[in-house]
From TrEMBL:
Gene3D superfamilies: P-loop containing nucleotide triphosphate hydrolases (3.40.50.300). Keywords: Antibiotic resistance, ATP-binding, Nucleotide-binding, Transport. It comes from the Bacteria. SUPFAM superfamilies: P-loop containing nucleoside triphosphate hydrolases. PANTHER family: ABC TRANSPORTER ATP-BINDING PROTEIN. PROSITE patterns: ABC_TRANSPORTER_2. GO terms for molecular function: ATP binding. InterPro entries: AAA+_ATPase (IPR003593), ABC_transporter-like_ATP-bd (IPR003439), ABC_transporter_ATP-binding (IPR050763), P-loop_NTPase (IPR027417). SMART domains: AAA. It is found in: Cell membrane. It comes from Nocardiopsis codii. This is ABC transporter ATP-binding protein. It is a peripheral membrane protein. The lineage of its organism: Bacteria, Bacillati, Actinomycetota, Actinomycetes, Streptosporangiales.
Length: 300
């Protein structure tokens, strides 16, 4: 079952198409990340999926409903949540009161104490919104989004600007949503976060999907390479193995075949009577794959 099934979506704001027939699916219960450079069309697509923007053409089903239809949209608003990077909350209200008021909008809200526990804000239940740190505010935004037990959650850059501890907490919370069967659509420029959280990734460029798959698939299919590095003190640049370069005093080789390279490096070291140490093999990350993908315009 797809939580989102978009087929051939186009959007023209009046000056030419900015989405060129995008087909985009998210299976129910998965965490999906949407990536792409500035101006690629992510916000436009997400707003169309959320029902906050109309499409020019194409078919769209979100939780079995059409967000472009007014009646469906009013039902969907109760079944999904959107967490933007910045939200307006009354600074003089307490965390508890704001959650209590929000819960009253839903027929079957989560228990407020349960939500506070989930976002680790129990101790701040009586605190005023204006006294919260950015990280706590972000967790309160999430708490509000979770209160109505959404089946679908849109998260825009959920951890940008947070300290490492808050970031880890929020990531754990998002990852934990999988257990409750919530479908999550995430936009983030933090590809470590995407690699950690997302079941599937879609990359948009120039209003079209450039690549789709699991983070592992995208890394595997990309032109990004593994980096083999080691120290070989005193070695002259002209004596380096084929394809190697010296970077910050270490020998670096990019390869798709690490086993062969490691064997060749050992043979080279014996031949050159050079001692090598600190050998590291770093596989490409989603970050590397994404950059390679945008540079070459394709995944292979
Ligand atoms: N309200 C609007 N009216 C006219 N054109 C728009 C509007 N919103 C976006 N666009 C255009 O649509 C294209 C896609 O923009 P969009 O904001 O969807 O990209 P994005 O991938 O979300 O970018 P970013 O990462 O910078 O937020 C851009 O060319 C942009 O100028």
């Amino acid at each position: 079952m797809h939580a989102i099934n978009a087929i051939d979506i186009t959007k023209d704001y009046g000056k030419g198409e900015v989405l060129h027939g995008i087909s985009y699916q998210v299976p129910a219960g998965e965490i999906a990340a949407l990536l792409g450079p500035n101006g690629a069309g992510k916000t436009t697509l997400i707003e169309i999926l959320e029902g906050h923007r109309g499409r020019t053409s194409g078919r769209l089903s979100v939780l079995g409903l059409d967000p472009g239809n007014r009646r469906d949209f009013s039902v969907l608003r109760r079944r999904m949540s959107v967490v933007l990077q910045q939200t307006m909350l009354e600074p003089g209200m307490s965390v508890r009161d704001i959650l209590r008021r929000h819960a009253s909008y839903y027929p079957d809200p989560l228990d407020i104490d349960e939500v506070l526990e989930q976002v680790d804000l129990v101790e701040k239940r009586s605190a005023l919104v204006k006294s919260l740190s950015d990280g706590m505010r972000r967790r309160l935004d999430l708490a509000l989004a979770l209160t109505g037990r959404p089946e679908l959650l849109f998260l825009d850059e959920p951890t940008t600007g947070l300290d490492p501890v808050s970031r880890r907490r929020i990531r754990a919370l998002i990852g934990g949503l999988r257990e409750s069967g919530t479908t999550v659509v995430l936009t983030s420029h933090d590809l470590t976060e995407v690699q950690e959280l997302a079941d599937r990734v879609d990359v948009i460029r120039d209003g079209a999907i450039l690549a789709s798959g699991s983070p592992e698939d995208l890394v595997r299919g990309s032109a990004a390479s593994t980096v083999v590095e080691f120290a070989a003190p005193g070695v002259a640049e002209e004596r380096l193995p084929d394809g190697a370069s010296l970077v910050n005093g270490r020998v670096r080789i990019h390869t798709d075949d690490q086993d062969t390279v490691v064997r060749e490096v050992q043979e080279w070291a014996t031949r050159e009577r050079t001692e090598i140490s600190g050998l590291t093999i770093v596989p490409p990350s989603l970050d590397d794959a994404y950059i390679a993908m945008l540079e070459t315009g394709k995944t292979e």
